[in-house]
Design goal:
Mean pLDDT: 86
Structural class: alpha+beta
Radius of gyration: 38 Å
Number of helices: 4
Distance between the termini: 106 Å
Shape: rod-shaped
Helix content: 55-70%
Low-confidence stretches: none
Number of strands: 5
């Protein structure tokens, strides 16, 4: 029976060093030059990629800043709206009359009726005037849109909406 000693595992660094020493000086020089060319190529590619990415980021930064500003404004508006009292259906003919008078003064042919959910608005009107009227009744009478379906057909728009006023104190 023969006994053999286990051969120690040779590491990759040792193998590379052995292979390096086993090649001629001319081949070493060629391998060194090839390594330098590859290193320079990789470095130039990395620098070109970094330059390209910097340009892309420089172009997208203004858009991102504008989006951030819009989100911050929206967050401020949401916080403001959360502090307002909850909605309740408008009570009384005075609010109906005020909203009808505001619509009539703008020349809007809208039908307004009080109902269980709030003030029902139906009809057709110029889109821009309709939006302006909605903003005015929100500002002046405290009416807010609870539900709205609006369909624009050219400059005209057809509306079916329910508006509600602030809750009674």
């Amino acid at each position: 029976m023969s006994t053999t000693k286990p051969v120690a595992a040779i590491g990759p660094i040792t193998r590379l060093t052995t292979a390096w020493q086993g090649i001629s000086p001319r081949e070493r020089r060629l391998v060194t030059i090839a390594g330098a060319v590859v290193t320079i190529g990789l470095t130039l590619s990395l620098l070109d990629w970094a330059r390209h990415e910097r340009g892309r980021l420089d172009r997208s930064l203004p858009r991102s800043a504008a989006q951030l500003e819009l989100v911050q404004e929206s967050a401020t508006e949401v916080a403001r709206l959360r502090t307002q009292p909850p909605l309740q259906a408008p009570a009384g003919p005075a609010l109906l009359e005020a909203a009808q008078a505001a619509a009539k003064s703008r020349g809007l042919g809208l039908t307004l009726q009080t109902g269980g959910e709030g003030l029902h608005v139906k009809g057709q009107a110029p889109f821009d005037e309709l939006v302006t009227w909605l903003a005015a009744v929100q500002r002046d009478q405290g009416l807010r849109v609870m539900r709205m379906e609006i369909q624009q057909q050219g400059p005209q728009a057809s509306i079916d909406a329910v508006l509600a006023g602030p809750s009674a104190p």
